[in-house]
Amino acid sequence: MLKFYFNGSPNPTKVALFLEESGLAFEPVKIDTRKGEQFTPEFLKINPNGKVPAIDDNGTIVFDSNAILLYLAEKTGKFLPSNRAELLSWLMFVATGVGPYSGQAVHFKHFAPKDQNHDYAHNRYQYETDRHYKILDDHLKGRRYMVGDDYSIVDMALWGWARMVPFKLGDDAFARYPNVKRLVDEISARPAAARAIALKDKFTFKAEMDDEARSNMFKHMTTKVA
To answer: How do residues 210-224 score in pLDDT, each as one tens digit?
Structure first.
């Protein structure tokens, strides 16, 4: 059976959505990143980068959420748009832009040490995250989905991060991206989305962002490279 290494963060949740939508049988394997479980020798054999999600599909190992979505879509023939060029363009836009900038926006807004001045970094990542969502919002004008007329892995990839827009950009941020919000609301209303979000609740994860968690989540805080 396919093993799905996950926690409740945006990237694993988008893969959980595909698994729930497709009906693929899978075994969820909890990786508690606040406890440092992503750095165990066993998990590093699955993903040398020490991040979730990852899958082990009967010996075929895939890591990075967008690579997993593409692999599973091609394996099952589900949620795969016929326009491959557009599929790859927007999937990579999410992979290389939306995800990384969103992650950094969250870090500098919520987790960077408060006793240091991070105004430049905070503004840069807020700006870039906002810019990416404006591009998405313009693209979705007059379109129901990101690629073609059908719900696809690109929508799932976007949903994983986009449903967290208020956490990244402020409580009123969705008002700036009405078309993105419409798509997020549609996907979030699907039964598979509710199951994907609830998957983490079947397990116990460390809740406290204490010194141990910060050390495991943000190793740059204790390791100086240059």
So the answer is: 999 999 999 888 888
- The whole-angstrom separation of Cα 155 and Cα 145 is 7
Dist. CA 17–CA 82, nearest whole Å: 20
Task: Read off φ and ψ for residue 26, nearest 5 degrees.
Answer: -150, 155
**pTM (2 d.p.):** 0.95
| CB 51 within 8 Å of CB 79 | no
Paired with 94 in beta bridges are none
CB atoms within 10 A of CB 122: 16
- C-alpha 187 chain-centroid distance: 15
Contact 102, 164 (CB under 8 A): yes
Taking the alpha carbons of 82, 85, 90, 93 in that order, is the dihedral positive or negative?
A: positive
The 10s digit of each residue's pLDDT in 168-202 is: 999 999 999 999 999 999 999 999 999 999 999 99
Alpha-carbon torsion 206, 209, 212, 217, what sign?
positive
Measured between alpha carbons, how far is 32 from 17 in angstroms, rounded to an integer?
Answer: 19
Closest CA to 173 of 147, 137, 141: 137
Nearest to 106 by CA among 157, 163, 51, 169: 169
CA distances from 72 to 25, 56, 100 (A): 12, 12, 22
